[in-house]
Amino acid sequence: MLSTGSVPAADSLDYWRQGISEAFVPLHADAGGGEFHGRMRVDDLGAMLVSRVDADAHRVRRTPALISRSERGRYKLGLQLHGSCLLVQNGRETVLRPGDFALYDTDRPYTLAFGEPTSMAVFMFPRQRLGLPGEHVLARRIGLDEEPGSLLSPLFLRLVKDAGRRATAAAPLASATLDLLSALLTEQLADRAPAVPHDALVLRAKAFIDEHLADPGLCPDVVATALHISTRYLQKLFAGEGATVSAWIRSRRLEHCRRELAGPQALGKPVSAVGAAWGLPDAAHFSRSFKAAYGLSPREFRAQALAG
Known about the structure:
The protein has 308 residues and is α+β, with helices and mostly antiparallel strands. 45% of the residues lie in helices and 20% in strands. The protein is built from 11 helices and 11 strands.
């Protein structure tokens, strides 16, 4: 619990700034002058921090300098309860009114401007919990007139009400709400993605994969992020091609290994080095995958190619 009523009026804004910085991430806070009133309750539900903030008109900012000293890898979701709020992030501005909510990233600069006494529920959780490309979801108003808003706002409101009274019982609901948020936003992103034709996205994905085959860390999440789409939508694109993204990456790596093993450039080169050069550093895994694809181990295949 945090309340400016526990400190002298002259210290209230400094006290508020320190309190919200400790509860969430380091923030600057300023108000229009005069006495400032604010109170906040924060509950830890395991999967997320759940809070309710009631305060006079003020503004909070997350600056590049503050971010450089305290990256957290967190999303915050603000659900407007009373009054209004202007959220600015990623070159985008959105106004939230009661029932609206929006996501913002604590590792990117943002501003929340409350022009009047206001109440907001704030939920903070790890960014990877959603698995979404951030630039497409940040600072976008989601209201009760949209499916995600109509389904999720009541759940978020329930979390705020239940957190203080029975946090243990609310923890599973918090995790389930994040799962539903991820699913609904992924579906929403997929609906918007056809601005780029399906075939063009598949070609771009395959081109990116071919350019990065040597990177052992190449995976569906990396490809989806590069294309600014969700991993779920990327998998949907490749399902239309009759393959999974991981299977396509593996097949392209093995094809390059096969070509190299069949050519003179592989002479005197350890078989394991060929696999490692194409993103398959585990020699045993490379040998098993190659044999499953071509019926021979890499060593046997090279010997047969040389004999031929």
